[in-house]
Each structure stands twice: as C-alpha cells, then as structure tokens.
Amino acid sequence: MNCLQFKPLVVGMVVTSTALFVGIALMARHSHAADSAQPAVRPALSVTLTQVKAGVLPVKLAANGSVMAWQEAIIGSEINGLRVLDLKVSVGDSVQRGQVLATFASESVQADVALARATLMETCANATEAETNADRARAVQGSGALSAQQVGQYLTAELTAKARVASAQAQLDGQLLRLKNTQLLAPDAGIISSRTASVGAVVGVGLEMFRMIRQGRLEWRGELTSAELGRIMVGTSVVVTAPGGFQQKGRVRMVAPTVDAQTRNGLVYVDLLGSPAGAKAVPGAFKPGMFARGEFELGSTSALTVAQTAIVVRDGFSFVFRVTPDKRVVQLKVQTGRMLADQVEVLAGIGPSDWVVATGAGFLTDGDLVRVVDEIRVKSAIEPVSKAQAASK
Predict the structure, then answer these.
(1) pLDDT tens digit string along 102-136?
(2) Exposed, middle or buried by CB within 10 Å (0-12, 13-18, 19+), for 390?
(3) What is the 3-state secondary structure (H, E, C) of 104-123?
C-alpha cells in the first residue's frame, strides 16, 4: 500500500477516536447531572412523640371468685297436715319482715281453738266451785264442823282445779299458735330466690317452701393463694367486675381462717356495696352463683409511665423507638409492668423525660428516618431539660 492510500485511513481513525472521546465526555456530564438531580433520602414515616412521665400507679391484686348470697334463709311450714290455700309471693319478689308469704286452710285449727276455749271455760267454772268450797272449809277449820280429812280434800280440790285451768289455758295457747301458723310469715327482709310450694299441697312440719336472700345482700368470695392472703386486710376496697362488664365496689368483710388442703387456696369474703332489698334491678347486675373477677386495691407506688401506643411487642418482647438528633429511630427493649387506662408502666429500658415515638411505632424498624410532627413543641420541651443538664455538669 502506498502513502496516498494510507493517509485517508489514518485521518478516519483520528476522526473516529475524537468522536468517541467526545461521546464519553458527554455521557459523563449527563451522569453527573443525573446524580446532582437525584433527591435526598425521604423519611419512612411521619410520627408524633410522647414523653416518659413519672407518676403514681395503684397497686392491685386480681382474683377470681363467685357471687353468693350473704345469708340464705330457708322458710318452711311450722304446722303439720294442712293444705296450702294461697301463695302470696313469687321468685324475685322483695319482702319485708312479717309479710305474709303463704296461707293454709285453717278450718280444722279454728275448730280446735273453739274446743280448747270451751274446755278452758269449763275448768274455770270447776275451779270457781272448788275455790268456794275451799274457802268454806278454811272458815270452819278447827271448829269441829268438818274433819281434818274433809278440809284437806276441799283444799286439794282447789289446787287441782287451778292446775286444770292452767292446763286448759296452755292447750288454748297452743291452738292459737297453730292458728297463727296458718299464715307463713317472712322472718326477715329480703328477696325470694326459690319457691317450691304449690297451692293445694298438704305439707309437713319443716318442709321447705321458700328460700330467701336475707336483706338482699350479696357477697363476692374471691379465691387467693396462701401467699396472697397475707396481703389482704379487713376493710380493703375491692372492685368486682361481672361477666357483662358491670362493676361494683365492695369491701373485705372477712378473710378465711383456713385454706383448702388440696388447692392451698383460701377465700376472701367481700361485701358488695349495692342498694338494699327492693331497689330496682340494674341490667347485668350481680346474681348469686355468678362468676366474677375482682381487684383488691392495695395502695399506690411511684412509677415511670408511657403511652400504650408507644409500646411495640415483637417476638414476645416489648420495644419503644427513641428519635436521635438526625431524625433516625433507635429501637430500645423495655420491661413493662402495670397498666392504667392508656398508660403503661416501664420498669427498665428508658429513663424519665425521654421522648419516644407515640404513633406509628408499629411500622418502624431500627435506623429508619422519620419526620417528627409538631417538632417545635417537642424542641421547646427538650431544650429546658438539656440546659438544666448542662448547667448541672
């Protein structure tokens, strides 16, 4: 190949290299411009902060138990062999002491009363005659008109007649008592909880006809372990919650003197401070035999609390997220304790006056960038604390 043929080839190679260099330079410029136009890292979430507070929380002891009647009266017939004539009350009725609950057929008893009254009148007449004869005998005693034996007979007849009057009076009183018992009366105020009697039935003495909750009083019998019983004292306040959510306050009346040998648990008897018998029933209120849960109020202690929304439970552990000055969150493991409304006690992991994420914590992970809502208010609350800490140093 001669020089004239080689020269166009060299010129072409130079032009091609220049074009390639220019292309690389333009690509580098466009890449730099693209890098400079790329936006900054965006926050993962907008959050609000809450402060750990020092406060006072109540100390409570929870237990389960049953609601029972304070005392239950079993009301039965006190007269034998009479027919039930009428039943005046039914289950759920409130009654007062002395109120008639049932009546019995009283014809036979009234006849017995009339017979006893006639017998008494007869014995009284005989006693009057015997007393007159005895007075006459005493008047002539010692005059010889009557022998000592006859005088003694008149005096003995007087005493016998008086004894027969007393016996007849006792029989009449017994029949009057039977007549009174033909009306079954309430022994105390309360609420009828059971009725087993039927109209027309002939009942015997002592047969149960009604069952009554005395004075309408109920009690909750909480079951506690042997160790927990020692923390309860008579007069301790209790809040008892029924299955339907109805709550009622109570007070410890008595702590059982013994514990069950099998379960090692003991009972605490709590008087429910409700309305007396006759008050209007509250829907969902307590009923005897109902299972309920109670909380004994044992005082209060100081504690650190944080909003419940700030606690995140993961893998069985509790965590909170604290925001660093560069707006990134740090996940901290905490130990929680008691709860009161929307506040949770923090036993370890964070200190007082710390600020943690309150809302949105469940969507964060350690190291996420966040945007703090109402940051000005948070800074105004943090700055005095920081200045005070700096001054103390």
Answers:
(1) 999 999 999 999 999 999 999 999 999 999 988 88
(2) exposed
(3) ECCHHHHHHHHHHHHHHHHH
- CA–CA separation, 228 vs 250, rounded Å? 18
Q: How far is CA 6 from the centre of its chain?
A: 109
Listed in order, the ranges of the chain carrying CATH 2.40.420.20 are 46-55+302-386
Give every CB contact of residue 248 below 8 A, 6+ residues apart in sequence. Answer: 239, 240, 242, 272, 273, 274, 285, 286
CATH superfamily of 61-70+212-300: Efflux pump adaptor protein, beta barrel domain (2.40.30.170)
In the chain, where does the domain assigned CATH 2.40.50.100 lie? Answer: 75-211
Amino acid residing at 322: R
Domain with CATH 2.40.30.170 in the chain: 61-70+212-300
pTM value > 0.85: no
In the predicted structure, residue 24 carries a pLDDT above the cut 50: no
Instruction: For residues 267 and 277, give the distance between their C-alpha atoms in angstroms, rounded to a whole number.
Output: 25
